[in-house]
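Morning - adenosine-5'-triphosphate inputs below, output right after.
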Amino acid sequence: MIRFESVTKRYPDGTVAVDGLDLVAPSGQITVFVGPSGCGKTTSLRMINRMIEPTSGTIWLDDQDTGAVNAATLRRGIGYVIQHAGLFPHRTIVDNIATVPYLLGQDKKQARARALELMERVGLSTTFAKRYPAQLSGGQQQRVGVARALAADPPVMLMDEPFSAVDPVVRAELQDEFLRLQAELGKTIIFVTHDIDEAVKLGDQVAVLKVGGTLGQLAPPSVLLNDPVDDFVAGFVGRDRGYRALGFTTASSVATQDEKTVGLGAEAAAVQAAAVDGWVLAVDDARKPIGWVRAAAVTATVTPDLLHRGGTVAPASGSLRAILDASLSSPSGRGVLVDDDGALVGTVTAGVAVAAIEKELAARRQAGAAS
Ligand SMILES: Nc1ncnc2c1ncn2[C@@H]1O[C@H](COP(=O)(O)OP(=O)(O)OP(=O)(O)O)[C@@H](O)[C@H]1O
């Protein structure tokens, strides 16, 4: 657990970057600091490992006052990842990752073996081990940065905009892998970003900071989206927050309809017979959806080039947002729901998805009114 107790940072020029901050980041969870430029996110983060010393107040790491421990000792238990990875340009990837173990006097061979293992863990091919950072893409360098921070197996990780310097697709991949890794490792993580979408995707809880370094709100993402405490937080969270909040709401039950299906090679007559409103769903041998087929386009048999693969597929146990999106993005207007193995469960129209949303919201309103 990391606890800020009335922490203030006033820089020598008089700028108050952080002002009386109180918050708790629970062990084994991801706490995200988010807020507009200059709200004190980086300053707050760096005070935890004492790269910046607070002017007043205390930061506790479990029951230890961080101000009372030797800074070098403190940092040994705290991994640190920054934007652009901050790798040493003249060291190979494997040596970059093993930096801290080397410093701690660990056997070189052992440290290298562990570095190779970490490369695999963060989704990097070990064939890159002997390369230099400049020979890797931005996304690959960020993975090296994460592996390096994990090398000493610290219980705490501080991450300052680690995924900001890469394109949106790579960024989403890095986020997904990071969540998978954290599900295995259960580190106590403080993650800084200025991107609210990244914050609500990654955070178990999100701290929205205001310029001047005060806390706007500290809450789990769904609470932040559904119930922002004031206009500042509501404005920062964004206009489509109601829609995005659906990403954290699962349907207790969605009435799916059975869908007739065809396989590759199905004859035109079979396609015509199975089609509803001109469209039929194609599945493979394991009943996994492979695309929609426009019945009128099938002259002989269903071939791969006739498959429309555009629509999203939602897990039947997934969020209402995913289910609604599946229906809105489907060429047939029928969203495809699958089970945990990816096999077809049934389909829903946007109308059915909206009815399920209505039902959940009504239940929530009722629970709210009763409490
Ligand atoms: N060394 C310094 N001396 C004086 N003021 C500083 C110093 N470092 C940061 N500041 C100021 O402190 C405030 C908070 O800065 P900080 O970098 O913590 O914000 P941030 O939320 O991380 O910003 P960004 O999202 O732009 O990175 C800003 O007003 C900044 O100008």
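Note: The chain is about 35% helix and 25% strand.

O.
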